[in-house]
TrEMBL record:
InterPro entries: AA_transpt_TM. Signal peptide: none annotated. Gene3D superfamilies: Amino acid/polyamine transporter I. This is Amino acid transporter transmembrane domain-containing protein.
Length: 466
């Protein structure tokens, strides 16, 4: 199937997607993923590079950044910074490869397409299933994050289970907006709000005399560690937490597919990773320096109850924006797979709307049920992140480079070719180690958590913001 598509794409007579301007569709334009683009349906190719960069940031800055100071506490600030920069470098390269691969293989829409190119139908099924499960669990985690924010702002005025239902309804409705181009304004708002909320906490912890959780009956001396001595389980869990903060990578396939001009993908990527990494370093170092071992998780609770309310008030739009993106991207992936090759994909027909709304509602409903019904959900997200999220950010991208460049070694093996093969091998080995180690650490954490507390009750009313 892909050989045929590749031949078709390389045919110089094939029409290339082209747009007259922002929001305008050139009649008869053809996209290798979405098919015929006309004015009668949604324009799936209408996201500029700046909007793409904001969407990239919003898939990453959200749930993960709030746990970085805790990861620094486990590793120590210097090893924590080194690990964060290393993971930033590897994931930036992985994201870069997505942009390059998309230009060479226009028919690629998701990571499952890569799986089929590399390993056939088995690869498509494995990576496609992993992609859906990963984002559904993250969407569920996002709904719980919203419920935490609502509890914090309202002093637990309503049963937490009701807040999770509210989060489900709001994110599914907003996530059902048809195109990423129309969602980008929400991403702008969400990004501004989440950055503001974390900056408020960062400034507040610097101004207070001690973190909120520190003892009140003694002189407070910051107990941050330059280098810690964690157990293997604590260390690998901390590293997995940092990986989670960069785990928006699988969504970048969908973002590239909806760009007006995919050649600007790297421009968007550079802006995204620069802002994200700089922000992670600043927030992680400053909050951990002032809070030490008494840093809260999530970090928004580190500066006391008043600042906690204010910061969560600002964070809520950001948490909503992240969660609706997770629902939208997963629903869009399933939607495209169901209707690809059909006129209903790009036309506003009844079938188009029934399938689209069924996909977003179904993804949101499954995420809600999993988040509300599983007693150890937060630990389970860590397990799924290690088992599914990590291998979607590392190994496939190394395989993509090898797929496009291995044959060049049969012609002319340059020093650069050898270096890149070695780099790809390192990425595959590192990703596999993090997957196995992170999975082990998560299982140990789940067992310890369940033995200690028995987990939370299904559809619990208890305040989850304390």
């Amino acid at each position: 199937m892909y050989e045929e598509k590749k031949k078709n794409h390389e045919d110089p007579l094939e029409p290339i997607p082209s747009y007259a301007g922002v929001g305008e569709v050139q009649e008869g334009a053809h996209d290798a993923v979405f098919g015929e683009i006309t004015g009668e349906g949604p324009n799936y190719r209408n996201v500029g590079w700046l909007g793409t960069s904001v969407l990239m940031m919003k898939t990453q800055i959200g749930l993960g950044v709030l746990s970085i100071p805790v990861a620094f506490d486990a590793l120590g600030v210097v090893p924590g910074v080194i690990v964060l920069i290393a993971i930033a470098a590897i994931t930036t390269w992985s994201d870069y490869i997505i942009g390059v691969f998309k230009l060479r293989h226009r028919e690629v829409y998701g990571i499952d397409d890569v799986g089929e190119l590399l390993f056939g139908k088995t690869g498509r099924i494995v990576l496609g299933t992993a992609f859906c499960l990963w984002w559904i669990f993250v969407a569920g985690s996002g709904m719980l994050g919203i419920s935490i924010g609502l509890n914090a702002v309202s002093d637990h005025a309503v049963c937490t289970a009701v807040y999770v239902v509210i989060a489900f309804i709001v994110t599914v409705i907003l996530g059902s907006i048809q195109t990423l181009g129309r969602i980008s304004w929400i991403a702008w708002l969400g990004l501004f709000c989440i950055l503001t909320s974390i900056l408020i906490v960062t400034v507040a912890v610097g101004l207070q005399d001690r973190p909120s959780a520190a003892p009140k009956d003694a002189v407070w001396v910051p107990d941050y560690k330059i280098a810690a001595n964690p157990s293997f389980t604590d260390a690998i869990t901390a590293v997995s937490t940092i990986v989670f903060a960069y785990a928006g990578t699988p969504a970048f396939f969908s973002l590239a597919a909806e760009m007006r001009e995919p050649r600007h993908f790297n421009k968007a990527l550079i802006l995204c990773q620069s802002v994200v990494t700089g922000f992670y370093l600043a927030i992680g170092i400053v909050i951990y320096y002032y809070c030490g071992s008494y840093v809260s998780s999530p970090a928004l609770g580190s500066a006391g109850p008043v600042v906690k309310k204010v910061s969560y008030g600002f964070a809520l739009p950001g948490l909503i924006a992240s969660t609706l993106l997770f629902i939208h991207i997963t629903g869009k992936y399933i939607f495209v797979r169901i209707l690809q090759g059909s006129r209903h994909l790009t036309s506003n027909t009844p079938i188009h709307w029934m399938v689209w709304l069924g996909c977003t509602f179904g993804v949101g409903l499954i995420a809600y049920i999993i988040a509300s019904a599983i007693p150890v959900f937060s630990d389970l997200v860590s397990l799924v992140g290690a088992l599914l999220g990590t291998p979607m950010c590392f190994q496939p991208m190394a395989g993509m480079w090898l797929y496009d460049n291995w044959s060049k070694g049969n012609v002319h093996r340059t020093t650069r070719w050898y270096a890149m093969v070695a780099w790809c091998a390192f990425v595959i080995i590192a990703g596999t180690f993090l997957m196995i180690g992170g999975t082990y650490g998560s299982i140990v954490s789940i067992i310890a958590s369940y033995n200690e507390t028995g987990g939370s009750a299904a559809w619990s009313c208890a305040d989850n913001s304390v």
